[in-house]
Design a protein that fits this description.
The structure holds two protein chains of two kinds. Chain A is an alpha/beta fold. In chain A, about 35% of the residues lie in helices and about 25% in strands. In chain A, the strands form two sheets. A six-stranded mixed sheet of chain A has the order 6-7-8-3-9-10, sandwiched between helices. In chain A, strands 2-1-4-5 form a four-stranded antiparallel sheet, covered by helices on one side. In chain A, helix 3 runs parallel beside helix 5. Chain A starts with 17 loop residues before the first strand and ends with a helix. Chain B contains 14 helices and no strands. Chain B is globular. The chains are: A alpha/beta, B mainly alpha. The interface between A and B is medium-sized, with 27 and 22 residues.
C-alpha cells in the first residue's frame, strides 16, 4: 500500500484510505466466466490505468464498480457501501462515482448546460441557480464554457467527451471511472481530452481508467493493471510495468502496441 | 467548356453554383423535367388536375346555393349548402336543448383560451396551466355539460351529439389514453415478469379486438355483469372503451420509440445516480416520444375518425347526425352535400393535428 504522501510520479497525493475494495469477485455472462477472482484495492487519490486486449474484461470490471454490471460472487465495497442488488445502495454508490463512456452518452435532447445540471438538480436536490453555477465552473475547467447553450449534436467528439467529464464532475464524485474515453475520437481530439484528465489527476481525483493511451499511463498513473481473459495478470508502477514486464502475456501485449 | 481559372493550391475561393441549377428554373429542371418519363408524368398530372379540379370547384362554389331555408332554394345545379346551413345547429350540438347550447360553446371556448398560453414560448407557468387543463378543466367541463347542479338544467348524455360529441370523445380518448399508453409501454419492457406479463396481456387483448367489438361489449355485455341497480352512463362506458383501446396502440408505438434509444442513454442516466422514474421522465421518454411523434399523431388521427363508430351503440356523433339528417324527407337527396361537409370538417381537424405535430417535430430538433 502507498502510505507516503507522494508516490512514484512525485507530484500526486495518495492517502492510505481505501475507497474501493474488491474481494474475490467473479462475474459471468450467463455461462461465460468473464471476470475471475478479482482482488484489488484503490486508495483515495490513486490513478489506475487498466489495459489489456479487447475482451479481457477491463470495461466489465470498471462497470461493476458502479453496478452497471452485476457480479455474482465476491464483494465490491465502494466508499464503505457494499454493492448488492439493493437499489438504495446502488443509487448511493452511483451518486459518488462518476463515469465517462467511450461514446460519451450525453443526452442529445438537452443543452450542454442542462446535461450538466440534470443530476445535481434531481439527484442532489440542488436549486437550479446553484446547479448552473457549478456546471459553468466545470465547463470552464474543461475549457468549453462558451458551448453551454449548444446541444451535444453540435459539438465535436472531443468537446462532447469534455462535456461528459464536466457532467460527471458536477456531481462532485469521489471516484471517476473512464471507459476508453478516447477510443471513439479522431486523433486530433484525443489530446484535448487527455489534457483535461491529466489536470483532473493533478487535482487529486481518484481515477480508474481503461485506456490504450500508454503515454497517459506513463504520465499520470501510479499503477498500471494488465488484464487478460478475465484475470488481473500483472500490476505495477508504470515505469516498472513498461520497462520490465514480468509476465509473458504482458510482454507480448506491450510489444504489440509498441509496434504500431 | 469554359476555361477554368487556375488558383494556387490552398487559395481556391468558394464560388456560386452554376445559374441553371438554382432558382425556379433550376428547380423545374431538376424536379419536373429531369427525364422523359418525368416530363410525361408531369404533363399527365397537369391533365388529371385539369379534368378534376375545375368541376369540383364549380360544384362546391360557383354553382352552389348558400342561402335559403328549404330545398326550393337549391336550383343552381351545384351543391346545396342550404341543407347544411339549415341543420348546422344540430350538426354541431346534436339534440342538446337550444337554450343550453351556450354551455357547450363556453366549455370549448374555455379550453381554447386555456390552450393559447401553452403555445406561447415565453409563458412561464406551462406546467401549472397544463396540470390545470388536465385535472381541473375536465371537472369544470363535466359540470357545465352535464348540468344538474349550480343551477344548471341537467342534460342527459343521450341528448349530446354532433361535432361536440365527436370532439368530447376524441379529446377524452386522446388525453386519457396517452398516459395509460406510456405506463403500459414502460411496463411491457419492465424487468419484473409480473408487470411485463400483465402489460403485454393487456395490450395484446385490446389490440386483438376491433373497436366495434369493444363498443358493443361496453354497451351490451358490460351491464350484464354489473349488480342490479348499478348503472354506468352509456357515454362513460364508450369513453372508457375508446380510451383503453387507444392506449394499447399508443403503448406499442411508444415501445417502438423506447427500443430506438441506445443502451448508452440508459447507462448514462443510471451512472449519474438518476432513479428509474427520473431517468425515464427526463432522459428516455423525451427522446423516445420525439422519435414516435408521427406514429402517435397517426394513432390520434385514427382515433378521431374511429369515434364515429359510437353510432352503432346509439350515440349520434357528427357523422351519425349528418347521416340521420339526410334521411329527413324534407332534405332527401342531399346526402352528398352532407358527406362532403363531414369530410371537410374531419379533414380540417386531422390536417391541423398533422401540421401541429410537424411543427413540434421541428421545434424539438436538436441536431442529432
Amino acid at each position: 500500500m502507498n502510505e507516503t504522501a507522494t508516490d512514484a510520479q512525485g507530484k500526486f497525493q495518495v492517502s492510505d484510505e481505501v475507497i474501493i475494495e474488491i474481494k474475490a469477485m467473479h462475474k459471468w455472462y450467463s455461462e461465460f466466466h468473464v471476470l475471475k477472482n478479482i482482488n484489488m484495492n484503490v486508495n483515495r487519490g490513486e490513478r489506475i490505468v487498466i489495459c489489456g486486449p479487447s475482451g479481457s474484461g477491463k470495461s466489465t470490471l470498471i462497470r461493476c464498480i458502479n453496478r452497471l454490471e452485476e457480479h455474482q460472487q465476491g464483494d465490491i465495497i465502494v466508499d464503505g457501501v457494499v454493492l448488492t442488488s439493493d437499489l438504495k445502495h446502488i443509487e448511493a454508490t452511483r451518486r459518488e462515482v462518476g463515469m465517462c463512456f467511450q461514446h460519451f452518452n450525453l443526452f442529445p435532447h438537452l443543452s450542454v448546460l442542462q446535461n450538466c445540471t440534470l443530476a445535481p438538480i434531481w439527484v442532489r436536490k440542488m436549486s437550479k441557480g446553484d446547479a448552473e453555477e457549478i456546471a459553468m465552473k466545470f465547463l470552464e475547467r474543461v475549457k468549453i464554457p462558451e458551448q453551454a447553450l449548444k446541444f451535444p449534436g453540435q459539438l465535436s467528439g472531443g468537446q462532447q467527451q469534455r462535456v461528459a467529464i464536466a457532467r460527471s464532475l458536477c456531481m462532485n464524485p469521489k471516484v471517476m471511472l473512464f471507459d476508453e474515453p478516447t477510443s471513439a475520437l479522431d486523433p486530433e481530439m484525443i489530446s484535448e481530452v487527455l489534457d483535461v484528465m491529466v489536470e483532473l489527476a493533478e487535482e487529486g481525483m481518484t481515477m480508474l481508467c481503461v485506456t490504450h493511451e500508454m503515454g497517459f499511463a506513463k504520465k499520470v498513473a501510479n499503477r498500471v493493471i494488465f488484464m487478460d481473459a478475465g484475470e488481473i495478470i500483472e500490476e505495477n508502477e508504470p515505469l516498472e510495468f513498461f520497462n520490465n514486464p514480468q509476465n509473458e502475456r504482458t510482454k507480448l501485449f506491450l510489444s504489440q502496441i509498441i509496434q504500431h | 467548356m469554359t476555361s477554368e481559372t487556375q488558383y494556387q493550391p490552398g487559395t481556391h475561393p468558394s464560388l456560386p453554383p452554376p445559374p441553371s441549377t438554382v432558382g425556379v428554373v433550376g428547380w423545374l429542371r431538376s424536379n419536373l423535367f429531369s427525364s422523359t418519363t418525368n416530363t410525361l408524368l408531369t404533363i399527365f398530372s397537369i391533365y388529371v388536375v385539369y379534368l378534376l379540379v375545375p368541376p369540383a370547384i364549380s360544384w362546391t362554389l360557383f354553382d352552389a346555393d348558400f342561402v335559403g331555408d328549404s330545398r326550393a332554394d337549391c336550383d343552381s345545379g351545384g351543391a346545396c349548402w342550404v341543407f347544411i346551413n339549415a341543420r348546422l345547429g344540430q350538426f354541431m350540438y346534436g339534440f342538446y336543448p337550444e337554450a343550453e347550447r351556450w354551455r357547450i360553446d363556453s366549455t370549448l371556448l374555455l379550453l381554447v383560451v386555456l390552450m393559447v398560453p401553452m403555445f406561447i414560448d415565453s409563458f412561464r407557468y406551462k406546467a401549472w396551466l397544463g396540470a390545470f387543463i388536465l385535472f381541473i378543466y375536465p371537472v369544470i367541463g363535466f359540470f357545465l355539460l352535464a348540468g344538474g347542479s349550480f343551477g344548471l338544467v341537467e342534460v342527459e348524455t343521450p341528448m349530446w351529439g354532433g361535432l361536440s360529441l365527436t370532439l368530447i370523445i376524441a379529446i377524452v380518448g386522446i388525453v386519457g389514453s396517452f398516459p395509460i399508453g406510456l405506463v403500459l409501454a414502460l411496463g411491457r419492457r419492465s424487468k419484473m415478469p409480473a408487470v411485463s406479463a400483465f402489460c403485454t396481456g393487456f395490450i395484446e387483448l385490446w389490440r386483438g379486438v376491433p373497436l366495434i367489438t369493444v363498443l358493443f361489449m361496453s354497451s351490451v355485455m358490460f351491464p350484464l355483469f354489473l349488480p342490479e341497480g348499478v348503472n354506468f352512463d352509456k357515454l362513460v362506458r364508450a369513453l372508457v372503451g375508446v380510451m383503453l383501446f387507444s392506449a394499447a396502440y399508443t403503448a406499442e408505438t411508444v415501445r417502438g420509440g423506447l427500443q430506438a434509444i441506445p443502451k448508452g442513454q440508459y447507462e448514462g442516466a443510471e451512472a449519474l445516480g438518476l432513479t428509474y422514474w427520473k431517468s425515464m421522465i427526463f432522459v428516455i421518454l423525451p427522446q423516445a416520444l420525439k422519435h414516435v411523434i408521427p406514429g402517435i399523431v397517426g394513432n390520434f388521427i385514427g382515433l378521431f375518425k374511429d369515434t364515429t363508430l359510437v353510432l352503432i351503440i346509439g350515440l349520434f356523433d357528427f357523422l351519425g347526425i349528418v347521416q340521420a339528417a339526410s334521411t329527413d324527407p324534407k332534405w332527401l337527396g342531399y346526402s352528398v352535400e352532407g358527406y362532403a361537409f363531414c369530410a371537410m370538417v374531419y379533414w380540417v381537424f386531422c390536417f391541423s393535428m398533422s401540421q401541429y405535430s410537424q411543427s413540434v417535430e421541428r421545434k424539438l430538433h436538436t441536431g442529432h
